[in-house]
């Protein structure tokens, strides 16, 4: 018995879902409230991709996003070690106290990336952002090995936050917020023997980590787009091995896996597809089978 025909892309249902997500989080998402800005980014970016941004009030969204940035009260506070970025949600936006406890400021690199990306999508002029406080304090999050902590109160360091920092500097058109050479060294140390990138040096190659590595290098100007068109050209990374690793991630069902010997997952169509797009090898994907597996995972009830 043959496999049933796949449904067509339910465009209007997606638009309605994203419209709701861009305004208020449904109750089922309450445990993810601390990541509200990140969820809002997916919703706003999705509406933009579907050319439906007019469904939301862009000025209202920009005003809401701006309310999450933490600002120093004086210039002298720029040297207190805190990060003056964006908080991820209202529940992580604590009022300051008389003791100036740094734990009351929980702005986060990923939330800051999401905030700036949303503002850019809705057409807000990022030149109006308090970039001096943001970038000068962000630079203090960079570690001696080139990696970044996401907050000033301490957390893991890996490629995700190097990418966030590079994207933030790129969107603000100001690279004073990071040492690019140190970041590059850290990224190159994350490339594994098989061509992919682990999230930290010495770890297993991973689809998300590989995207963060390649995208960050591209944003910082260390690699050019379309690297795969001339594999003989010298490059900072092993492009041939990277290309081979990425293409091997398309599984038998047409989907993409994030690591070797793992089932495919729709999210890796974005992460691996993004890498192949950057290096100019997107045409090697079996697009038909990839689209089929994505549509097969669409909820239509």
TrEMBL record:
GO terms for cellular component: CAAX-protein geranylgeranyltransferase complex. The keyword Oxidoreductase does not apply. The keyword Repeat applies. Belongs to the protein prenyltransferase subunit beta family. One of its GO terms (molecular function) is CAAX-protein geranylgeranyltransferase activity. Pfam families: Prenyltrans. It comes from the Eukaryota. Residues 9-295 form the Prenyltransferase alpha-alpha toroid domain. It comes from Oryza meyeriana var. granulata. Keywords: Metal-binding, Prenyltransferase, Repeat, Transferase, Zinc. This is Prenyltransferase alpha-alpha toroid domain-containing protein. Its cofactor is Zn(2+).
């Amino acid at each position: 018995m043959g496999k049933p025909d796949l449904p067509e892309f339910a465009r209007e249902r997606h638009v309605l879902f994203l419209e709701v997500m861009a305004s208020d989080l449904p109750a089922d998402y309450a445990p993810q409230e601390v990541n509200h800005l990140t969820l809002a980014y997916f919703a706003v970016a999705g509406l933009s991709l579907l050319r439906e941004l007019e469904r939301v009030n862009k000025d209202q969204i920009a005003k809401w996003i701006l309310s999450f940035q933490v600002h120093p009260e004086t210039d002298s506070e720029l040297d207190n070690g805190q990060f003056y970025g964006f908080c991820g949600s209202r529940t992580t936006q604590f009022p300051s106290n008389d003791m100036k406890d740094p734990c009351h400021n929980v702005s986060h690199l990923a939330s800051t990336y999401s905030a700036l990306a949303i503002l850019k999508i809705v057409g807000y002029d990022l030149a109006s952002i308090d970039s001096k406080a943001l970038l000068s304090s962000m630079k203090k999050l960079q570690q001696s090995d080139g990696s970044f902590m996401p907050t000033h109160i301490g957390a893991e360091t890996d490629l995700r936050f190097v990418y966030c920092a590079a994207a933030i500097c790129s969107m603000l058109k100001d690279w004073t917020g990071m040492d690019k050479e140190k970041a590059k060294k850290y990224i190159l140390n994350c490339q594994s023997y098989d061509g992919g990138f682990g999230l930290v040096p010495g770890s297993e190659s991973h689809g998300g980590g590989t995207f963060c590595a390649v995208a960050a290098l591209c944003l910082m100007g260390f690699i050019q787009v379309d690297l795969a068109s001339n594999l003989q050209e010298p490059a900072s990374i092993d492009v041939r091995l990277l290309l081979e690793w990425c293409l091997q991630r398309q599984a038998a069902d047409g989907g993409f896996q994030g690591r070797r010997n793992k089932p495919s997952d729709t999210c890796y169509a974005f992460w691996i597809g993004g890498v192949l797009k950057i290096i100019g090898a997107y045409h090697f994907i079996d697009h038909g089978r990839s689209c089929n597996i994505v549509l097969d995972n669409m909820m239509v009830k």
